[in-house]
């Protein structure tokens, strides 16, 4: 959001900044993840070289380089994974927020300047409220993608370092643990399938909440036609109807009212309730610090549990302060915190049913009922918050419109450029290291191979030279060992082209059917297309593997084509269906009046008009298959059948690690993708916009 706001200003070099900041999004993620792995190496990695002994000491590593990926009982492996995931995700979020900012009318900011608002006041009262429809879906998508970050963890740490007494490693998450249990000896596929079912229902609940909150299903399938209400005929149906009415009227509606902004600006609740919320918040914070302090090893689940307690406790304390100041924001914060407390209590009860700490669940339920039922409007003027502000500034609020403030743009532009340069360096650093290692003679992702930085920081040392022999090795091999690059290239082209053809054929017919026909189960089917995009590929690996093994499709390109086509189908159907909705039905009806069939009208009228959207969809499907790593890594057991992503990762296979050759082949693989992305990014964005808007 910060980068989007900065790039929304009229500053020099904005186009260059945006292009460089989008670079992490254009480069295939498996390449940059492995690059970060090399940069985090203990002895020769770039990160330790930049930190130096002083940085090692600050991070608790003593006088030795930090073991970022292997230190047992340390938060460093988890921190390395999180940093890599943030680097991979911020370009997309920046683009989403930039699109939202461009939709805010500039007249609002001009009026705010006339009224004398500061930049912070404009951001708080104009930018944030108008960006809420963008912030909420982007935040939910960010949560889902972080939940699904299999490639980052598996390629960087494979779940390690190990935790004594536990099967899961310190950086394992649910989906990496499922993969390890089901597809590594002793291959407990039943146990992994049970875990997959649990993950499925967790994400299904979250996906249904997401589609309901954001209106994604209505945007895709249209408004639901209200059904005719009929009187239930049997006792069970009447009981279910009464329960639904009770839930909607007595529980859901009051909670929504307490969470929403449509309530009095100043609210009054009993003092004992404010004290109870504050006590529960203080208990949560203390318990969170206790969990952190008792961790002998930084296990990711325990760390998330402690962070959850600290966040909920802090929100409760903040909400209690807001209630004490009679602000409705305090009531809303308390309600959200208590709902999170109940959700955490459910998971805690599943893990430890007999723990006394589960009584927090009952306390949170009681407080929700109290906050909903006991709040009344506070009518005393001025309210405590206004009195507090007046006491702090020791003056009464200024009345009337102050004169417009004129500021020198020089002193505001310099910090903006400084921040943008800092973030740009962070964005291009791994790409710069990969390029330097591909041409460098030093065998590591090290400072000695990093252009510009090595000239600045290693001026007094003898630096290694540059060479192209790593590209020659990748392309042509060496005496006694042939290169497999062109074989892997052929495999990737065959799989990607076949996936594009099969996926587009299925998606075109499916999207046309959803766009033009009404049939039973249509809305539920479209809901499944929206929700299934939120599920990680790792949880379907177990059934895929078992099914493909029984069909004899393991280690075959046909298996990859089927898997890629199925996984790409939901998004492409969703995208093309939105575009077909914009084409008038009158054109097809006119063609059928002239004697053609429904199928003929589709191929002769709809398909030619939809060529721009079909081209965009084809490019998305092709690039998705071209860059996919997980399925190919799992199903391809012979190096002769590897696709390029698996071939690239095979150079990083401890104890044999070839960083220079990995960097060289990464450039050969990523360069066409980056060029395609830069050339077609305008068409991709415009195509997505047309396909996402109806009417």
> What's the level 1 CATH class of the largest domain?
Mainly Alpha
The class by helix and strand makeup works out as mainly alpha
CATH topology of the largest domain: MetI-like fold
Note poorly predicted spans: 396-409, 685-695
What is the count of structural domains? Answer: 3
Count of helix runs: 31
How big is the Rg? Answer: 29 Å
Q: In this structure, how is the largest beta sheet organized?
A: 2 strands, antiparallel
Shape descriptor reads globular
Widest β-sheet, arrangement of strands? 1-2
Residue fraction in strands: under 5%
Give a written overview of the molecule.
The protein is mainly alpha-helical. It folds into 3 domains: 2-172, MetI-like fold; 241-393, no CATH class; 485-692, Orthogonal Bundle (MetI-like fold). 70% of the residues lie in helices and 1% in strands. The protein has 31 helices and 4 strands. The strands form 2 sheets. The protein has a two-stranded antiparallel sheet. The longest helix has 34 residues, at 659-692. It starts with a helix and ends with a helix.
């Amino acid at each position: 959001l910060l980068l989007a706001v900065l790039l929304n200003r009229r500053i020099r070099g904005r186009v260059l900044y945006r292009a460089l900041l989008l670079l992490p999004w254009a480069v295939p993620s498996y390449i940059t993840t492995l690059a970060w792995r090399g940069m985090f190496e203990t002895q020769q990695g770039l990160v330790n070289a930049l930190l130096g002994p002083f940085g090692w000491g600050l991070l608790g590593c003593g006088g030795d380089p930090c073991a970022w990926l292997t230190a047992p009982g340390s938060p460093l492996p988890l921190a390395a994974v999180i940093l890599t995931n943030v680097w991979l995700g911020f370009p997309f979020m920046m683009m989403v927020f930039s699109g939202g900012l461009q939709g805010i009318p500039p007249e609002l900011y001009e009026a705010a300047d006339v009224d004398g608002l500061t930049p912070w006041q404009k951001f708080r009262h104009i930018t944030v409220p108008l960006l809420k429809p963008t912030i909420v879906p982007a935040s939910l998508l960010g949560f889902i993608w972080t939940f699904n970050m299999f490639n980052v963890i598996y390629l960087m740490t494979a779940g390690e370092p190990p935790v004594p007494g536990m099967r899961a490693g310190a950086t394992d998450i649910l989906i990496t643990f499922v993969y390890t249990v089901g597809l590594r000896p002793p291959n407990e596929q039943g146990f992994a399938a049970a875990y997959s079912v649990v993950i499925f229902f967790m994400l299904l609940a979250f996906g249904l909440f997401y589609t309901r909150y954001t209106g994604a299903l209505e945007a895709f399938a249209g408004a639901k036609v209200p059904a005719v209400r009929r009187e239930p005929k049997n006792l069970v149906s009447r009981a279910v109807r009464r329960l639904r009415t009770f839930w909607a009227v007595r529980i859901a509606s009051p909670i929504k009212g307490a969470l929403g902004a449509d309530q009095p600006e100043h609210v009054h609740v009993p003092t004992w309730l404010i004290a109870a919320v504050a006590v529960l918040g203080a208990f949560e914070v203390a318990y969170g610090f206790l969990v952190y302090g008792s961790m002998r090893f930084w296990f990711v689940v325990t760390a998330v549990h402690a962070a959850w307690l600290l966040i909920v406790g802090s929100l409760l304390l903040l909400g209690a302060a807001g209630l004490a100041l009679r602000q409705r924001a305090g009531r809303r914060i308390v309600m959200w915190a208590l709902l999170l407390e109940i959700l955490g209590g459910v998971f805690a009860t599943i893990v430890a049913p007999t723990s006394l700490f589960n009584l927090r669940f009952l306390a949170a339920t009681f407080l929700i009922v109290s906050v909903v039922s006991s709040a009344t409007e506070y009518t005393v003027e001025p309210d405590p918050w206004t009195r507090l502000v007046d006491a702090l500034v020791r003056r009464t609020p200024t009345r009337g419109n102050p004169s417009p403030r004129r500021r020198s743009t020089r002193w505001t532009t310099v910090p903006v450029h400084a921040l943008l340069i800092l973030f740009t360096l962070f964005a291009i650093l791994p790409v710069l290291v990969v390029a330097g290692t591909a041409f460098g003679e030093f065998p590591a992702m090290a400072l000695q191979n990093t252009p510009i930085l090595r000239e600045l920081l290693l001026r007094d040392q003898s630096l290694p030279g540059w060479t192209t022999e790593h590209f020659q090795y990748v392309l042509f091999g060496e005496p006694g060992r042939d290169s497999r690059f062109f074989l892997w290239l052929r495999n990737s082209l065959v799989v990607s082209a076949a996936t594009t053809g099969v996926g587009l054929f299925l998606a075109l017919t499916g999207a046309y059917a959803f766009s033009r026909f009404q049939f039973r189960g249509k809305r539920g089917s479209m809901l499944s297309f929206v929700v299934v995009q939120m599920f990680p590929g790792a949880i379907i690996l177990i059934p895929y593997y078992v099914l493909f093994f029984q069909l004899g499709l393991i280690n075959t390109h046909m298996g990859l084509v089927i898997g890629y086509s199925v996984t790409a189908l939901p998004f492409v159907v969703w995208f093309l269906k939105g575009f077909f909705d914009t084409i008038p039905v009158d054109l097809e009806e006119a063609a059928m009046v002239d004697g053609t069939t429904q199928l003929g009208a589709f191929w002769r009228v709809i398909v030619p008009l939809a060529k721009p959207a079909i081209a965009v969809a084809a490019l998305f499907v092709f690039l998705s298959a071209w860059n996919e790593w997980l399925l190919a890594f799992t199903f391809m057991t012979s190096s002769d059948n590897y696709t390029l992503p698996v071939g690239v990762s095979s150079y990083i296979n401890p104890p044999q690690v070839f960083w220079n050759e990995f960097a060289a082949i990464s450039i050969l693989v990523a360069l066409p993708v980056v060029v395609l992305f830069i050339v077609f990014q305008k068409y991709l964005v415009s195509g997505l916009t047309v396909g996402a808007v109806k009417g």
